[in-house]
Design a protein that fits this description.
The chain has 156 residues and is mostly helical. It has six helices and two strands. Strands 1-2 form a two-stranded antiparallel ribbon. The chain is elongated and about 75 Å long.
Length: 156
């Protein structure tokens, strides 16, 4: 039953009305309309919008969130098993992000952004800018290792 106004949804979720309209435009919620043309939301939309807020805070894009929410049923309130299934898809991505963040944290003290962007200071780990052959940006923080770069130099 669609009976909650956008103001009620905003008060319950803490989202601005404009944000809720934006999420509707992005296809994340699908309110109905009453006879006067006003938006009417289901109670389940409170949970959907709360999920959107949390997922965005974790760094997921609107497109990723939309794809995840598309797996939830329309026309009925998602069950616990529906939400569990959705969260399992996010779990692997979160684990990868956590791993990258832990690697970043452990290397941050010694060489911020090593990839190596400081050619004068890092001739040992990135002689003649060999890391650049692996791509732009901080290559060592993005997954390449200095040993990998050095072994390629030795092959030449």
């Amino acid at each position: 039953m669609q009976n909650l106004s956008i103001g009620t949804i905003a008060a319950r979720t803490g989202l601005a009305v404009s944000a809720i309209r934006y999420y509707e435009d992005e296809g994340l919620v699908h309110p109905g309309r009453n006879a006067g043309g006003q938006r009417r939301y289901e109670r389940a939309d409170i949970r959907r919008l709360s999920f959107v807020m949390i997922a965005q805070q974790m760094g997921f894009s609107i497109a990723e969130i939309r794809a995840a929410l598309s797996s939830l049923p329309e026309g009925r309130t998602p069950t616990k098993s529906d939400w569990t299934r959705l969260s399992e898809g996010f779990r692997a991505q979160l684990d990868q992000r956590i791993e990258r963040l832990q690697k970043l944290r452990s290397t941050l003290d010694g060489c911020i952004g090593c990839g190596c962007l400081s050619l004068e200071a890092c001739k040992l780990y990135n002689p003649t800018d060999r890391a650049a052959q692996k791509g732009a940006g901080p290559r060592y923080l993005l997954g390449n290792s200095s040993a990998e770069i050095l072994s390629e130099i030795e092959k030449e």
